[in-house]
Amino acid sequence: GFLHRLDVPSSGLILSASTYEAFYDFQIQLATGSLARNYVVLCHGSFPKGRQDIRARVHWVTGSSETNTASNVLPGGRPAHTKMNVLRNANGFGQLFSLLSVRINTGRRHQIRLHLTHVGQPTVHDSRYSAVATWQGDLAWCPRNFLHRHCLACLPCDDRSGTGWKAFEPLPSDLAEALAKLHALSNSSPQVMPTLSAAMA
Length: 201
Fold this sequence. Notes:
single chain; about 200 residues; alpha+beta; two-stranded antiparallel sheet; 5 helices
């Protein structure tokens, strides 16, 4: 069975267990943070270089129509923690952007997209959490939500033996083409793609 899911406009790796033992083992690892989920995200605005953390409680309405409703940051929501490393700041189309490597310690619904919007820097081409004008502007150069799960890593718990494992998924061609339209704000490289390639290796 599937251990988790991806938002419909996103892409990347999904973990599925083929036995009951593996399913419950991975559930424990998800709950304890031993299973790492890493994403590549392009968002609006310029984050300061280095590591960033967003901690904001996430609330969503459960039920038959839950996939059609947005999550919200509310005091009564469930704890949510998003870790980010700023890979590169870039510009294009008269705007500033940040290329992020993101790891989530919790898996709340739409967590990354909501947290980025919460701090005023929504994911590129996010029709749900961006302002309409922002989303319409992104349509001209980015075909879909720029959020891709590129790595899953099983990190052994303290009571485990072994070295764990990692799985990688390259950035899809449509997102890579969109990213190539931007220019990095750095004297070392005029393009953003070399930085991304190194981060995903």
